[in-house]
Amino acid sequence: xxxxxxxxxxxxxxxxxxxxxxxxGQLLDRVEHGESIVITRHGEPIARxxxxxxxxxxxxxxxxxxxxxxxxxxxxxxxxxxxxxxxxGREAS
Length: 93
Description:
Elements: E1 4-5, E2 13-16, H1 17-22, H2 24-32, E3 37-41, E4 44-49, H3 58-74, H4 82-92
Parallel strand pairs: 2-3
Antiparallel strand pairs: 1-2, 3-4
């Protein structure tokens, strides 16, 4: 199995669906070593095998959300409503 390089898949190796099915074990070995592999059907990309990433740090994500919500409370629209801003944008165009 010799995968080819394709310009539209971020330099990932590509493999046809039939070859992927036949050689799944080899592909998983390559992915385990950091490779990303695009699986194509009739030359069209349909899936990507990528190394399993680190789990999302839920505490860190919640802190980011909380920070955004705190920031939102300090921002104003200068007394205008969203509807006013939308109408102003429509009038300007």
